[in-house]
What we know:
Blueprint: E1 2-3, E2 10-13, E3 16-19, E4 23-27, E5 30-34, E6 39-40, H1 59-71, E7 76-77
Antiparallel strand pairs: 1-4, 2-3, 3-6, 4-5, 5-7
Amino acid sequence: MGFDKPYVANNFYGDHIKLTESLTYKGEGYSVRVPTGFISDGTTNQGMHHIIRKFGPSLRASVVHDYLTVKGSLGITR
Length: 78
């Protein structure tokens, strides 16, 4: 279980990122595949950017969160 890669391949796109490779998270009995070209705003943390970096270690989880926010349960494969 977990992410298929230890990084997020991306290009900066203003204050967002655009994936240059897909990103997959595999859970127990399901997976979420975020496609190449998806645009994310990184970690949005309500003004805590001085503590938690917008494009820091939590970026993979933030990208999956943003994707599921857009796609809802349609983004989950069981």
